[in-house]
């Protein structure tokens, strides 16, 4: 098809006889980069054209006469050395012209490299009924000539070989199989790359559709403060819609970072709950939070699926702690506040070390400790006030 498109460019514009005007040999050759080529243009004797009146062009640029060779009165050759990769995948245009510039004949040169073995073949399913696969061209990926990639698959033991047909996903090196897939049976999947200079085949991967299920990221992610606690934020999100349509649950991960940082901190113990309290944060600081989902227990399968993409970042800030008032007539009150704050930080440091993340136990311990310290603080204040009244 490419050759036909290329040759359409070289229909003679003046000569109208049914007899062929001229012939270029070799016609539409495929050549390795760095190779040389000698092509000949032979004009039909009936035309009365002499070879020394002809000239050659490559992609519209006239080639120097020093590269020509006069073969006969009606035959002219041209020699090209150390050819570079084709400037267009439809081939470079080598054209033989008459003195007045009219096209006598043309050929397409396909100069490039054979494909290398495709790599990084991965597949995933959105609904247990379809399959999408993507891969990466081997080596540098550039062959300079049109290279066809074909995704092939078959049931591992008894299926016939089939080809994926839908490559219109908007992404290169991706193919989509929308239907007619079997469950509980492994597939063998591979990619073949081919062009006019050779063929290469990827490694074969084996998978069960149920082992590569993924979902969209969790939606409706909200991040909010926990009262006036300056070191905590609550994260809540909605389950992906696919979880409601199929017999599997999910586990989640959260990651968060400071506004002015690119380093994410991962919370990996969220489980299947759809909320989490982040603790041990900096006060008065903006945090960005993301959540992702991994389906598990698909139709009873013990294997986890594939992690979804991360949700869009959601931002929230922790409160500022209230500063101690200066000039207080009762320094003991300030000392008690400072002691309470120090005790809270010490205990939470232990919580973070031994029960960090979204563990319900860590948050429960922390809340109980905070309530106890607040009661203790009120008791100390009450006793202090009572003793002052007695002194007066």
UniProtKB/TrEMBL annotation:
Domain (Fibronectin type-III) ranges: 117-212, 217-321
Main localization category: secreted
Example GO molecular function: cytokine receptor activity
UniProt keyword Protease, yes or no: no
Annotated SMART domains: FN3
Pfam families: EpoR_lig-bind, fn3, Lep_receptor_Ig
A Gene Ontology term for the protein's cellular component: receptor complex
Signal sequence residues: 1-16
Alphabetized SUPFAM superfamilies for the sequence: Fibronectin type III, Immunoglobulin
GO terms (BP aspect): negative regulation of neuron apoptotic process
Subcellular location(s) of the protein: Secreted
Stretch list, region Disordered: 314-336
Keywords in alphabetical order: Disulfide bond, Glycoprotein, Immunoglobulin domain, Phosphoprotein, Receptor, Repeat, Secreted, Signal
Family stated for the protein in its record: Belongs to the type I cytokine receptor family. Type 3 subfamily.
Protein name: Cytokine receptor-like factor 1
Protein's organism: Salmo salar (Atlantic salmon)
Gene name, Swiss-Prot/TrEMBL: LOC106613786
């Amino acid at each position: 098809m490419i050759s036909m498109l290329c040759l359409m460019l070289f229909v003679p514009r003046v000569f109208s006889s049914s007899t062929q005007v001229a012939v270029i040999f070799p016609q539409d050759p495929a050549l390795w980069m760095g190779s040389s080529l000698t092509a000949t243009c032979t004009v039909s004797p009936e035309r009365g054209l002499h070879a020394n009146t002809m000239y050659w062009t490559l992609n519209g640029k006239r080639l120097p006469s020093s590269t020509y060779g006069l073969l006969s009165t009606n035959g002219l050759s041209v020699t090209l050395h150390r050819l570079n990769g084709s400037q267009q995948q439809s081939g470079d245009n080598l054209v033989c012209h008459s003195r007045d510039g009219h096209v006598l004949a043309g050929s397409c040169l396909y100069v490039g490299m054979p494909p290398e073995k495709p790599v990084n073949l991965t597949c995933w399913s959105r609904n247990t009924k379809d399959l999408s696969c993507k891969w990466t061209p081997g080596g540098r990926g550039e062959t300079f000539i049109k290279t066809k990639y074909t995704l092939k698959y078959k049931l591992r033991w008894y299926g016939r070989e089939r080809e994926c047909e839908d490559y219109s996903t908007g992404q290169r090196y991706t193919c989509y199989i929308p239907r007619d897939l079997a469950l509980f049976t492994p597939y063998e999947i591979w990619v073949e790359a081919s062009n006019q200079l050779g063929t290469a085949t990827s490694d074969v991967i084996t998978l069960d559709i149920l082992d590569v299920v993924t979902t969209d990221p969790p939606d409706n992610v909200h991040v909010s403060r926990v009262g006036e606690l300056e070191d905590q934020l609550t994260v809540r999100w909605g389950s992906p819609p696919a979880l409601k349509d199929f017999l599997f649950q999910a586990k989640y991960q959260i990651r968060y970072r400071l506004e002015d940082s690119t380093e994410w901190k991962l919370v990996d113990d969220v489980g299947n709950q759809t909320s989490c309290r982040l603790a041990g944060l900096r006060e008065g600081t903006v945090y960005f939070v993301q959540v992702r989902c991994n389906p598990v227990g698909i139709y009873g399968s013990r294997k986890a699926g594939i992690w979804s993409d991360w949700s869009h970042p959601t931002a929230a800030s922790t409160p500022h702690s209230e500063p101690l008032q200066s000039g207080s007539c009762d320094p003991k009150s300030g000392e008690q506040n400072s002691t309470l704050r120090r005790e809270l930080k010490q205990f939470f440091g232990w919580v973070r070390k031994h029960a960090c993340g979204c563990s319900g136990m860590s948050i429960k311990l922390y809340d109980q400790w905070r309530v106890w310290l607040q009661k203790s603080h009120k008791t100390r204040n009450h006793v202090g006030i009572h003793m002052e009244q007695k002194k007066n």
